[in-house]
Amino acid sequence: MTRERRRIPVTLESVDTKVFASALDWPGWSRGGRTEQLALEALVAQAARYAAVASRAGQDFPVDLTLDDLDVVERVVGDGSTSFGVPGRVTEADLRPVTSAQANRLADILQTAWDTLGDVVAAAPAELRKGPRGGGRDRDKVEAHVEDAERSYARSIGLRPARDASMAEVRADVMTTFRLGTDGSPLPGGTWPLRYAARRFTWHVLDHAWEIKDKSDPEA
Would you say the pTM of this structure is higher than 0.85? Predict the structure, then answer.
């Protein structure tokens, strides 16, 4: 007898022209589209790429996913961040308590995202393929953007990185914060709950890692 596969809970964050679909239990697996259907299709299309990250983090990620495997459990109204292309809204599901084991899992996935970005940067040419009008950042500027964003994100989880702190130091402090279980409320001194912070940090890292990888081939 074949055991029925458990469906993957997903939230949708929407404005008039943009929708983000995010898998609740898989931080960083968030994709956007112009409609709910397109966002969900984009999420499924990116599953294989995300699976490599999950596997590297020691997680058992489902294979051969289809739209039928997704279960939309919450919809939230987006804001300016959503319109700009960022999954920026905290959901009710993000306010669930996080055990120590769950916190360590979230931290492991974020660490793997950082490792993935590092590998992609190391393999990429300094100059990336540009858009049709010559727009777009090169490798080092994309990496610098990710790091600058994380210094800002750190304040949203209650950290106050010194101006001269290295990125390794900032990320070590983020890891320490992530590995603490919480009751689901915003992290002390910050505004983001842990589950949302994990999604935002990891999505941003992977989104730009994949951007660099996709633009590394000038013939693509």
Answer: yes
